[in-house]
UniProtKB/TrEMBL annotation:
Keyword Disulfide bond: yes
Purpose of the protein: Removal of H(2)O(2), oxidation of toxic reductants, biosynthesis and degradation of lignin, suberization, auxin catabolism, response to environmental stresses such as wounding, pathogen attack and oxidative stress. These functions might be dependent on each isozyme/isoform in each plant tissue.
Keyword Metal-binding (UniProt): yes
Native source organism of the sequence: Noccaea caerulescens (Alpine penny-cress)
Site (Transition state stabilizer) location in chain: R82
Amino-acid positions noted as binding substrate in the UniProt annotation, renumbered to this chain: P183
Protein name: Peroxidase
EC numbers for this chain: 1.11.1.7
Residues annotated to bind Ca(2+) 2: D265, T267, D272
Gene Ontology BP, a term: hydrogen peroxide catabolic process
Length: 352
């Protein structure tokens, strides 16, 4: 009797397992079809309120998740805002910066300007998860970055503006493309002017958008040369205000941990024009910041924004909209997971 009972239980277990396998075999083709349908040939024309009919709560969901992120860690919203810059300059605003590396693709996360620097990708993951619950397969990761960047500014006291939406997510990413384009913390004003000009962004746009450093922090790694060996001189950057230089020397000693972070301006959790006031006073954290005041081509804009916060806010919002307009013209999709192209998910499903 005991053997009979064991045999019956085994048969029941096998039957249940076959039922699960059958369910999965029925589900997988539908899921693969679902993911394939998310892939499109070209993006749509960007416009405000793009999701007004397909996902009317999209923008409020993004802002709600950004508020939660800011409560957990104030710095995180500044980190999310940086993603727009590092995404849009490299083949347009297509969320390529969010893709994880695969055995067949070296993405942008380990590019020179991004490695050990870009962070808070989990905030984007949380936003995507909330949007998928409300409106499955509707809102692109690229649009999430644009909305979240705007919200990072608005939630910390800066301007609010209407964003244009309708982007598609890239199918791939390239570490080389990022390395070839993104500036280093050592960049000077001339290099930055030339870079922004390539994307039809003016000198005023460039200086205003540099004001994104009104919030957040930077690593000691990015300023060691300024403190101890500016331009190979073996001396500090003469543009550094002496008291501020001593503060940075204490924060970032020559033999210290270069991953220690310092505030990018004197009010790192408030979006305001203090960043520009600091530059006028010789207290810019990064070389690429301070050079905006030491350079004749950009100094007047720095002075203007330091004296007129409203003008800075107007110029910054206008610049962010222009930056968000950059597109590659390549085909894209609405990713199910912001870190992985849909076809990669399909491959994983097929392998399993």
């Amino acid at each position: 009797p005991e053997l009979k009972t064991i045999h019956q239980k085994k048969k029941k277990k096998e039957k249940k397992l076959r039922g699960k396998q059958k369910s999965m075999s029925l589900l997988v083709p539908h899921l693969i079809l679902y993911l394939l349908l998310l892939t499109v040939v070209t993006g749509e024309i960007l416009r405000p309120r793009f999701y007004s009919e397909t996902c009317p709560e999209a923008e409020s969901i993004v802002r709600s998740e950004m508020k939660k992120a800011m409560v957990r860690e104030a710095r995180s919203v500044a980190s999310v805002m940086r993603l727009q810059f590092h995404d849009c300059f490299v083949n347009g605003c297509d969320a390529s910066v969010l893709l994880d590396d695969t055995p067949n693709m070296l993405g942008e996360k380990l590019a020179l300007s991004n490695i050990n620097s870009l962070r808070s990708f989990e905030v984007v993951d949380d936003i995507k998860e909330a949007l998928e619950k409300a409106c499955p397969a509707t809102v692109s990761c690229a649009d999430i970055v644009i909305m979240a960047s705007r919200d990072a500014v608005a939630l910390t006291g800066g301007p609010d503006w209407e964003v244009k939406l309708g982007r598609k997510d890239s199918l791939t990413a390239s570490q080389k493309d990022s390395d070839d384009i993104m500036p280093s913390p050592r960049a000077n004003a001339t290099f930055l002017i030339d870079l922004f000009k390539r994307f039809d962004l003016s000198v005023k746009d460039m200086v205003a958008l540099s004001g994104s450093h009104s919030i957040g922090q930077g690593r000691c790694f990015s300023i060691m040369f300024r403190l101890y060996n500016q331009s190979g001189s073996g001396k500090p950057d003469p543009a550094l205000e002496p008291v501020y230089k001593k503060k940075l020397n204490k924060l970032c000693p020559l033999s210290g941990d270069q991953n220690v972070t310092g505030d990018l301006d004197a009010t790192p959790v408030v979006f305001d024009n203090q960043y520009f006031k600091d530059l006028v006073s010789g207290r810019g954290f990064l070389n690429s910041d301070q050079t905006l005041y030491t350079s004749r081509e950009t100094r007047e804009y720095v002075k203007m924004f330091s004296e007129d916060q409203s003008e800075f806010f107007r110029a910054f919002a206008e610049g962010m909209v222009k930056l968000g307009d950059l597109q590659s013209g390549r085909g894209g999709e609405i990713r199910f997971n912001c870190r992985v192209p849909n076809r990669r998910l399909i491959d994983v499903l097929l392998e399993s």
